[in-house]
Design goal:
alpha/beta, ten-stranded mixed beta sheet, 10 strands, about 45% helix, about 20% strand, BUG, MFS transporter, signal, Bug_dom1
Length: about 325
């Protein structure tokens, strides 16, 4: 009887096998942008690996704060996850006193899934072909030329502000609720330029709808071999890239995090993933667990300092 009672107690205290129902991945941008694309590619892969539907839930707005808040306040059971991007580590620099979560402590980092360099792209409203010509026009009309970003405080906002500081230029910031609408308006001529992730503008650059002037990376992108780096084009010391990664609520059981890490690593190593992401201007990357956590902490410190140096404020 005692053995039977002990076995029953053990069974009652043991966690149910995960996942036993659909998993939701929350994205802080609208559908169609690079974060959403990575999320949907991962969701398809994870659903096959886990044997449960994995649903992408877009919650755009407030520079991904709404999405991050939804996940930070969700039960830590592995059924609500965040597909975050670089701007996640920029939230404390601009919104620390206005958010209900800690960008680091409220989450359990799982893995990065992809990275993408930043490119300076222009549309029909500013038909220049080189970075030098772009700078000439911007300097001729201080504060009048515009640049679009996926949102105030986004990685594109920080990259743009850093560029204007380095080059001594002044431009007008036009924030959107995601990369997709920013790119649409850039193509339509409503805005002049965008410091965008390569993944968000590659198809439009390849089709000729947009012109890429420079890539913010140490080397040229093999997808745009004729586009120089900023270093080559004369802006020294300028670099920027974006990561896309999976985070769970803090307190998520270690066994669930380990399962998510296995699925994430399998995703980044799969030849189909590598090919798909490269076709969108991204590289698969799987920094998991402690290294990802250390990266988040470092970026929060660096971006907070950068916001102070550049006097960046939430708009």
């Amino acid at each position: 009887m005692l053995l039977a009672a002990a076995a029953l107690a053990s069974a009652q205290s043991a966690p149910a096998a995960w996942p036993g129902k659909p998993v939701r991945i929350v994205v802080g941008f609208s559908a169609g942008g690079p974060t959403d694309v990575v999320a949907r590619a991962f969701a398809d892969h994870a659903a096959r690996q886990l044997g449960q539907p994995v649903i992408v839930d877009n919650k755009p707005g407030a520079n991904t704060i709404l999405a991050a808040e939804a996940v930070a306040s969700a039960p830590a059971d592995g059924y609500t996850l965040l597909l975050g991007a670089t701007n996640h580590t920029m939230i404390p620099a601009l919104y620390a006193s206005r958010v209900k979560f800690d960008a680091v402590k409220s989450f359990a980092p799982v893995c990065t899934l992809a990275v993408s360099p930043t490119v300076l792209a222009v549309g029909p409203a500013m038909p220049v072909k080189t970075l030098a010509a772009f700078l000439q026009q911007v300097k001729a009309e201080p504060g009048k030329r515009t640049y679009a970003t996926p949102g105030s405080g986004s990685s594109g906002h920080f990259a743009s502000a850093h560029f204007t500081r380095l080059t001594g230029t002044s431009m007008n910031h036009i924030p959107y609720k995601g990369a997709a609408q920013a790119v649409t308006d850039l193509i339509g001529g409503q805005v002049d330029s965008s410091f965008a992730t390569l993944g968000s503008v590659l198809p439009q650059v390849q089709s000729g709808k947009l012109t890429a002037l420079a890539v913010a990376a140490p080397q040229r992108s093999p997808l745009l071999p004729n586009v120089p780096t900023f270093e080559e084009a004369g802006v020294k010391g300028y670099s920027a890239d974006a990561w896309y990664g999976l985070l769970a609520p803090a307190g998520t059981p270690p066994a669930v995090l380990a399962a998510l890490e296995r699925v994430s690593q399998d995703f980044t190593r799969a030849p189909a993933t590598v090919e798909k992401l490269r076709g969108m201007g991204m590289e698969a990357q799987g920094h998991c667990g402690a290294p990802f956590a250390a990266q988040l902490q470092r970026e929060v410190r660096e971006n907070t300092q950068l916001a102070r140096d550049l006097d960046l404020k939430a708009e």
